[in-house]
Amino acid sequence: MINVCLADNFPVVHFGVKAYFKDHPEINVVSNVGSFFMVPDALRNKEINVLVIDLELDGLKSIYELKAIIKNFPETKVLVFTNLNEQIYAPNAIKSGVSGYVHKSAKLETLGTTIIRVHQGLIMMSESIKKNLALIAKQNKSERLYRKLSNREIEVLRYLCDGKKNNEVSKILGLNEKTISTYKLRLLQKLNVTNLVDLVNKAKTLDIV
Q: pLDDT at position 36, please?
């Protein structure tokens, strides 16, 4: 059996996923957590083969925290199950060491198939994401600057779109306030806007947040 830990904010998701896999021949949901702070204990207390986690999970401030989980629990595969835009977030998640990415609009059957395949050691993503990653790999740094946002830039952008000020974002991410200002300037340049209001609107138009 593949032991799964589901990390999600919403009880209805926990109930639905657990009910769906109740009699599954290969998948057993053995742990449910409602915040990122509970994840390390869950992985220590039980033998978890696959961690299914939402990028919007309470307490998960940065993709870099997921990288730490992957490093500290190498026997556990990490599978992202989220509503966040796949085109924007999946490439960076995969590059950070995540084994798969499933959008919450997908069928639970797809989630099950993906859990099994990442447990087998495969990296699971849609064909469009594979093409996106191949495109990024071919670009030189100057092209990437305008076509791709880094993990940190996406994270800073999300918090700015939530109405957080630079000093608040710096505390959340544990970065210097000047560093946040630098990221903000880069975002303005990359998204070709001149002020925060337009930056937020552009991010929403592109379905980044």
A: 97
